[in-house]
Give the backbone structure.
Amino acid sequence: MLEISKREIISRLKAVDNPWWDERPVPEEWMYADLPRRAYFNAFHSLCCESGVRRAPVLMGPRRVGKTVMLHQTIHQMIQDGWNPRHILFASVDTPLYTGLPLETFVNILIELHKMDRNTPFAVFFDEIQYLRDWEVHLKSLVDSYPKARFVASGSAAAALRAKSRESGAGRFSDFMLPPLTFAEYLAFIGREKELIGKDAKYFDKIQLTHIDQLNEEFVNYVNYGGYPEAVTSPNVRRDAPQFIRRDIIDKALLRDIPSLYGINDVQELYRLFTVVAYNTGEEFTFDGLSKASGVKKATLRKYIEYLEAAFLIIKVRRVDETGKAFKRERGFKLYLTNPSIRAALFQPIGPDDDAMGHLAETAFFSQWFHAEEMDTLRYARWKGGEVDFIQLNATLKPAWAVEIKWADRYFKNPQELGALLAFTEKATLHKALATTRTAFGFTQVGEIGISHIPCSLYAYWIGKEIVQGKVTDISSKINLI
């Protein structure tokens, strides 16, 4: 049986993965320097170059959100900043030629090729690291063995990576989550953020919103295909965004990533469950009802939901009662897609007046939140006679704010129709709440309860913008419409 030689590995590293080792200038498009940077880039680049702490950043997120691009853009910036190009190695672990290779093999090749020693500063980037068994043990060993080096890894199975990172990293890894595009990033990528929002979007009362109809038009576009950089920036991909999302994101995650990581044999059963959830994103489920709808047994269903969450395809949101208290027994839960454009890819794009737009607006709201730390405190409330879409709990697990997502202006004109939101706000002693609209922007008062009304598209923009900047701690304190 033929074995892959070291010479073949080196040839691949030189010719394909690390063109910057050559003395000739590398075209910027080879390193994706010509593509727009994610809003997370500066934070990630700083983490990769931080030499004061011996930690390996682990970039996590679903497929096609730009992880590999961000790795290459980071390498490009490092070279621009003065790093020796020959002291930087990139390797995609899922390349067939590298199958089963220990991570240390790449480091040894780098040191040997460029005549370095253990104390020479160098950087190594491992892409799609989840395909190497016991990667966390290998990576921790490298971090401990090379004090002057910087090691960076990325992977698509976020939850599985995070679990191993925390179990075996022992303070040697720094998790960095990269979600699909926020609505704010989408507007920046298409060059319309300043035009549609204005210059100062830190507070709602300073936003120069003069194009709400155009903003809503782009919000519908975002809901249909705007969560993934290639579907936004590439004209060829954009022409058939649903096929791209279905083939390169959904199918590969469902038919390749999850089965290989968790040993699933019946991939069609998993796919069937996912399509049921995707079509009904934002609906409340029970295990009994979901089992009947999908044909998947309840015991298996629980595992599949965990796997779909691990692959960053869905979010599970827990229920509270009309006072914000959790139920002792899980009676129901909501499932949301991590990005609404997944639904359009599986079925068909939706228009602004379609019935599904309400639930997809909710899904878009959650897609701004799901990667943030605050996501763990988000709930929905449901009780006999009422439901509120989103509740955030504070540190003592009591309601901090309540939001009702509406894609209509009627509730601004008739706020008393927001009966469930008003009842919850009163019982939770919050005194104020928020309800989104389609175009209306203002404040109403019903009895002692004040309600802020904000266009859904604008609220999604603002939430994503603030979360990326790391400034969201208590959203309600920054909303001042009175």
